[in-house]
Specification:
mainly alpha; 12 helices; elongated
């Protein structure tokens, strides 16, 4: 046989026919896998979702026992749909049902506080495709400030130790330099626990730690500023570099990293003032902060 025959138009036609047949077979398999709808899920705000009880079988808790797939009857001329009223909103139920489709899960941007209900529904019905999808979004480093509270609530709901520690560390870091961030974080943790049904004792250790840490930092930074004011009474800066001193304070008062504080200390290369008086004052202030940061409250151990 001529080897060039393998590249003939007839062979290409046969290959195209085989590919077309395989695609049609895959389509038929998908149709068999996605049967007709026999259940109507009704959200609390009246939205109706027609779906198949066979697809919902992966999460048996989503249908009450008296409305399970075995209770749905069919006739040759008419297919009856069992109606089930759900406690979730139409928005949440629509997103939830996407995880039962035999298609790849599409990543979505989480929207809190709206998605607290979705998180609770994933827990209630054990929808593992949805749980994995939400975990993939929350398990990132660095964790964005708006996802810190959701990540911690999620980690406690589904017992994920690595995510607990990641969220707790991110929570402490977000409150280091922004007083408003603490209020927003505490509100998010409280709201998340209420919306998802998480026990308060799971959240209180982190809330208590953040409050203690915030109080400690406020006291420490007040001592540092008091040290600076004490030197103001003793020294008069002849080189008019006081403005440089105060602008540099924003750096040392917005970090709890000892490495960063040492780099900002006089003589480390990043800070160098024009007069001896300011150099002395700066060194005293940084020393107070370095000693205080070494005694910061320890984070709790989460079970």
């Amino acid at each position: 046989m001529d080897l060039r025959e393998s590249d003939s138009p007839q062979r290409h036609k046969r290959s195209a026919s085989v590919a077309s047949s395989s695609f049609a077979s895959a389509q038929d398999s998908l149709k068999r896998f996605r049967p007709h709808s026999d259940v109507v899920l009704v959200s609390r705000d009246g939205n109706r979702f027609h779906c198949s009880s066979r697809l919902l079988a992966s999460s048996p808790d989503i249908l009450p026992p008296n409305q399970s797939a075995s209770d749905v009857t069919h006739t040759a001329s008419n297919e009856l749909e069992s109606e089930c009223h759900m406690p979730e909103s139409g928005r949440t139920l629509g997103i939830l049902l996407e995880y039962f489709e035999p298609t790849p899960v599409q990543p979505r941007v989480l929207d809190f506080p709206n998605d607290w209900e979705l998180m609770a529904a994933l827990k209630r019905y054990s929808v593992w495709r949805g749980i994995d999808a939400m975990h993939a979004v929350l398990n990132q480093s660095p964790l964005p400030p708006n996802l810190v509270a959701p990540a911690f609530i999620f980690s406690q709901l589904f017992t994920i130790p690595t995510l607990v520690q990641l969220a707790a560390k991110a929570a402490a870091k977000s409150c280091t330099s922004d007083a408003d961030a603490l209020d927003a974080l505490l509100a998010g943790l409280t709201c998340g626990a209420e919306e998802t049904g998480l026990q308060q004792e799971k959240v209180m250790p982190l809330i208590t730690y953040l409050l203690r840490r915030s109080t400690y930092l406020h006291t420490l930074r007040s001592r540092a500023l008091a040290t600076l004011r004490a030197f103001d009474d003793e020294y008069e800066c002849e080189d008019s570099c006081r403005g440089m001193v105060y602008s540099s304070l924003s750096d040392i008062l917005s970090t709890t990293s000892r490495r960063r504080l040492r780099k900002l200390d006089y003589g480390a290369g990043e800070v160098d003032f024009a007069c001896k008086d300011c150099d002395v004052r700066w060194e005293k202030v940084v020393t107070v902060l370095l000693e205080g940061v070494a005694d910061m409250p320890e984070p709790p151990v989460f079970c």
